[in-house]
């Protein structure tokens, strides 16, 4: 008998710790726009990106974050005003978000074509998550709700031995917001409780404003790309803070 809970899981920062791969892909893509950057991402830049990773909502923004860091931006400055910095970089390079999304995806595809195992290796699932997802496959309906391109999600899950049907992966390709996806899942499973695990507080705050989604259980993944300040803010806003160990039970 199926578990009455439907799981809607963000991918990066909930299932997969993709910060290093995202940073390296962002750097590789940035070098194609700004050839003054070295071909290989310096280790210290990748580490700075990992610290700044919580600001990234959609993968292509890693291109702009890496360019900003190369130009001397601090992690703190990105937290304080990355939107303005990113917009200025896009205007300077005369590129828009659609072009950057394509460049980011193409850059990943080239890396995968050259070294698929190495690329997957830079996208590890959090400790214990493989076993958790395998158990969910046996007794629960679960979905991936992400801004990542779906083919990358499939590749990473498959590399970890987890199979998930295409119709259960809602990614960037569908041009749907997470709010829209949650409404689809709620309509698809009207008699079951929907639990949404997300590591970005702004996303949860947007979902919480939707009256139609008032019955969705919103869970803040403390093991993902967020910090102590955001966690305290999440608790103050009434969200349940979940540690990795609690999710794995």
From TrEMBL:
Range of residues in the leader sequence: none
Family annotation (InterPro entries): HAD-like_hydrolase_sf, HAD-like_sf, HAD_sf, PGP-like_dom2
GO CC terms of this entry: cytosol
GO function terms (MF aspect): phosphoglycolate phosphatase activity
Gene Ontology annotations of biological process type: DNA repair
Domain of life: Bacteria
Membrane-spanning parts: none
Gene3D superfamilies, per database record: HAD superfamily/HAD-like, Putative phosphatase, domain 2
Keyword line: Hydrolase
SUPFAM superfamilies per UniProt: HAD-like
Protein name: HAD family hydrolase
């Amino acid at each position: 008998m199926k578990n009455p809970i439907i799981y809607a899981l963000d991918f990066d920062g909930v299932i997969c710790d993709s910060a290093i791969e995202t940073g390296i892909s962002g750097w590789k893509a940035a070098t194609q726009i700004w050839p003054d950057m070295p071909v290989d991402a310096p280790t210290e830049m990748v580490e700075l990106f990992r610290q700044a990773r919580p600001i990234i909502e959609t993968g292509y923004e890693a291109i702009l974050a890496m360019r900003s860091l190369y130009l001397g931006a601090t992690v703190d400055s990105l937290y304080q005003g990355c939107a303005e910095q990113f917009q200025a970089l896009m205007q300077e390079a005369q590129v828009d978000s659609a072009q950057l999304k394509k460049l980011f995806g193409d850059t990943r595809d080239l890396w995968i074509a050259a070294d698929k195992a190495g690329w997957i290796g830079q996208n590890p699932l959090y400790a214990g998550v493989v076993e958790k997802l395998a158990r969910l496959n046996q007794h629960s309906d679960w979905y991936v709700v992400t801004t990542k391109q779906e083919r990358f999600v499939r590749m990473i899950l498959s590399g970890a031995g987890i199979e998930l049907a295409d119709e259960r992966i809602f990614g960037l390709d569908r041009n749907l917001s997470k709010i829209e996806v949650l409404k689809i899942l709620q309509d698809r499973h009207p008699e079951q409780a929907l639990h949404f695990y997300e590591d970005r507080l702004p996303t949860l705050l947007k979902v919480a404003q939707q009256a139609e989604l008032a019955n969705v259980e919103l869970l803040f993944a403390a093991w993902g790309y967020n910090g102590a300040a955001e966690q305290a803010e999440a608790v103050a806003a009434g969200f349940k803070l979940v540690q990795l160990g609690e999710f794995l039970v």
